[in-house]
Amino acid sequence: MTSNIKTMLFDLDGTIMDTNELIIRSFMESLKGLVPEDFGREHIIPSMGLTLEAQFQNFTGLTDVGHLIKAYRTVNTKLHDELLRPFPYTNEVMKDLHEQGIQIGVVTTKIRMSTERGMKFCGLYDYVDAFVTVDDVVNPKPHPEPVLMALEMLNADPATTIMIGDSAVDMISAKEAGVIPVGVAWSLKGGELLKENGAQYIIDDMRELYAFAGMER
């Protein structure tokens, strides 16, 4: 394992914030009447990490899905505080990394408003040096643009940067941008899928990130 990392880029949903049930319930409620009766979480999980537009288009076959995105965000906002939690050890690890001088970025396919709301709600906002949301890019993940933008904002060296994520799009975006892809074992999609899409490491616990920065756990 490399131990000279200076910059850590994090995906948001499913990586540092446990939004899995929030996302699934938001989709299920906003898709009522538009998908077969047997449509369930097993159909939603594989595409988590893509933009809302891409996911709704995949689920419904519709091109114009603006009304579904609006419905999703209404449900998501209503359930947000009830269902949102950071994953174990996230707060202490990000705090320690920040205090040690590790640059921290968040690279997400969420809009900026909900990104900032979630990070503030979980007490993580102040540890982040750069945010790249879907509002900031032309080409969201799996395109490398979001990761490249974060590198530029932080003046970071790809060789000493890792991208931590829970989905294939995170690994692909990281790999294409020249940074080290790191998957999380708590991904609903499974560690093997992340390895297949370029993950060089899979962590089982957020505290394993200390070793990448040459810090004691």
Automatic annotation (TrEMBL):
What Gene3D superfamilies does this protein map onto?
HAD superfamily/HAD-like, Putative phosphatase, domain 2
Q: Per its UniProt record, what SUPFAM superfamilies does this chain match?
A: HAD-like
Q: Which InterPro entries match?
A: HAD-like_hydrolase_sf (IPR050155), HAD-like_sf (IPR036412), HAD-SF_hydro_IA (IPR006439), HAD_2 (IPR041492), HAD_sf (IPR023214), PGP-like_dom2 (IPR023198)
| Superkingdom of the organism of origin | Bacteria
Q: Name one Pfam family in it.
A: HAD_2
Q: What protein name does the entry list?
A: Pyrophosphatase PpaX
Q: Which organism is it from?
A: Paenibacillus glycanilyticus
Q: What is the lineage of its organism?
A: Bacteria, Bacillati, Bacillota, Bacilli, Bacillales
Tell me the name of the encoding gene.
ppaX
